[in-house]
Amino acid sequence: MIDVQNQVDHRNISIDKVGVKDIRYPVTVMDRNNGVQHTVASINMYVNVPREFKGTHMSRFIEILNEFHGHLDIREFSSVLGALQEHLQAESAHMEINFPYFIRKLSPVTESAGLMEYRCRIAGSTDRQKGYDLVVEVSVPITTVCPCSKEISDHGAHNQRGTVRIAVRFKRFIWIEDLIDLVERAASCDVYSVLKRPDEKYVTEYAFENPKFVEDVVRDIAYELEHDPNVGWFLVDVENFESIHNHSAYAFIERQK
Predict the structure, then answer these.
(1) Which of 30, 38, 196, 218 could potentially form a cystine with 110 if both were Cys, beta carbons 3.0 to 4.6 Å apart?
(2) Once rounded to an integer, what is the mean pLDDT over residues 76-99?
(3) What is the pLDDT of residue 6?
(4) Domain assignment present for 1
(5) Beta bridge partners of 143
(6) CA-CA distances (angstroms) from residue 207 to 15, 42, 166?
(7) Number of domains in the chain
(8) Which CATH number covers residue 219?
(9) Do residues 177 and 103 lie in contact, with contact meaning Cβ atoms separated by under 8 Å?
């Protein structure tokens, strides 16, 4: 049968990324407390296409993914990317997986258990010239209390839920839980899935005594990452979904160490 993708293309334009997006697939994630956690990811896979070829073979992406079924985790990223390069005769290969990660979390006073969901992303790439690259990213919900509101108000202060996105390149393996812990320490208070009345009292008062602007949160996290020798690059952004404004508050820091 004619292989159309391998035919010559005369426009003389190379393509940086060609592939498949939003593949729903089971994956295994390293879990600090339980060893591993099984979840379902949305996966994107790409390779480059040289200027002389018309296209790539889309079915091979799925075939390669199926070769790693049952043991597709962060330790296999470089192997998957290498297989993409080899089977698709590519100079570069890329894979992104987005998945929910769950941690059993106890409320601060009554120790009521609930599962907290954190949205995670792992993006890897390999290039015959530039080598291997891997980024781990986590989005963490937080609570903040406005320092200005607390300072000027006779009674109370406005608070809101926000999201911190933290992404790192690292030298040695880093736990998702370590990144989550770092973010939650920088917030006015954690977010919990289960809170009884004694817990609500504690959370409200704890956050009130620990007011933070988005600038404070992003700087506190960046300070810790700046002084972590295991981290070579990081990105942190914070978005507060303001409770008394018709907009969000936002802060961003990216550093190459």
Answers:
(1) 196
(2) 94
(3) 63
(4) no
(5) 161, 189
(6) 50, 35, 21
(7) 1
(8) 3.10.270.10
(9) yes
